[in-house]
Amino acid sequence: MILEHEIPNGSKLYFGKSAKVKREIESIASTVLDSEGFEEILTPLFSYHQHLSIANERKLIRVNDEKNNPISLRADSTIDVVRIIEKRLGRNTDERKWFYIQPIYKYPTTEQYQIGVEYMGEKDLSYVLNISNEIFKKLEVDALTQISNMKIPHILVDMFDELSLDDFRHLNIEKFLNLKVDWLSKLVYLQHVEQVDELLEIIPDVLKPELIKMKDLCNGSACNNGVLAPMYYAKMLYYDELFFRVIKNNEVYARGGRYKNEDTTSVGFAIYTDTIIEEKVQ
């Protein structure tokens, strides 16, 4: 029996302090983004294209439109923002810097509020990473920035028949180490920028440019509390190169990276509002 006061598991309810904190978080973030020249956009709740960004389509909440075409609730904002700007609003605006404050929904009843940024046509990930760091600084959230590169898992899968991308999605450390390749073991345990130059002397040439990109991103951004995670692989389909996560106490506070939609390379991130609220109201 479902009681009158119950709400679905994973749904959100804000009241009193949590509602106030949510409003303050969104106000601080929107003020920072407005000062950086970003325009706000709110995308439709329903989408025809979510399968293009969600690796596990079982996470989508599906319905049908009036012509029986399959659609789903918004489970990710990035691809819809880029698609709408390029395909629908392109003739009406030259703006390339956008932000949104809206929830996403995943099966069966998970609701998650996000503050997202998309800088279309920009390749420098350090720019939006620094904006993310500025927002967290103003929110007084002291977290760890973890930098990865999605090309590294792909290169390693091509090099070793024993490996698959699922090994990186699930961070199968034991399998990596069991290959008993010295440079690969050192790559697994790589964490700090200071270790990169030594590793560059022994890893295959095909990996060197990708590792240097990670080093340069960390050095070029204001992430004083940053580490490298070359074996991490993001589950979002569109991230294809540099990537970062903001983590505290094993909770992910933000994700972002460089991605390509058709011929346009862009950078962006999403801050998970609910994770910050949970910290603030404890």
Question: How does this model look, in words?
Answer:
The protein is an alpha+beta fold and 282 residues long. It has a domain at 7-141 and 266-282: BirA Bifunctional Protein, domain 2 (2-Layer Sandwich). It contains ten helices and eleven strands. Strands 1-5-6-11-10-9-7-8 form an eight-stranded mixed beta sheet, sandwiched between helices. Helix 1 packs across helix 3. The longest helix is centred in the first third of the chain and has 19 residues, at 17-35. The radius of gyration is 20 Å and the shape is globular. The mean pLDDT is 92.
Write the layout of secondary structure elements.
Elements (H helix, E strand, L loop, with lengths): L16 H19 L3 E2 L5 E2 L14 E3 L5 E4 L4 H11 L8 E10 L3 E11 L4 H14 L5 E6 L1 H9 L5 H5 L3 H6 L3 H7 L7 H5 L7 H12 L6 E3 L10 E10 L2 E11 L2 E9 H8 L2
Parallel strand pairs: 1-5, 7-8
Antiparallel strand pairs: 2-4, 3-4, 5-6, 6-11, 7-9, 9-10, 10-11
Helix pairs in contact: 1-3, 1-10
In short:
The chain has helices spanning about 15-35, 80-90, 125-140, 150-160, 165-170, 175-180, 180-190, 195-200, 210-220, 275-280, and strands at about 40, 45, 60-65, 70-75, 95-105, 110-120, 145-150, 225-230, 240-250, 250-260, 265-270. By secondary structure, the protein is of the alpha+beta class.
What's the order of the H and E elements?
A: HEEEEHEEHEHHHHHHEEEEH
Largest sheet: 8 strands, mixed
Strand pairing plus helix content: what structural class? alpha+beta
Label the overall shape. Answer: globular
CATH topology of the domain at 7-141 and 266-282: BirA Bifunctional Protein, domain 2
Which strands sit side by side, in order, in the main sheet?
1-5-6-11-10-9-7-8
Total strand segments: 11
Q: What is the name of the CATH architecture of the domain at 7-141 and 266-282?
A: 2-Layer Sandwich
List the quaternary state of the chains. single chain
How many helices? The count is: 10
CATH superfamily of the domain at 7-141 and 266-282: Bira Bifunctional Protein, Domain 2
Output the radius of gyration.
20 Å
Helix content: 25-40%
Quote the beta fraction: 25-35%
The CATH class of the domain at 7-141 and 266-282 is identified as: Alpha Beta
Average pLDDT value? 92
Spans of at least 5 consecutive residues with low confidence: none
Cα-to-Cα separation, first versus last residue? 31 Å
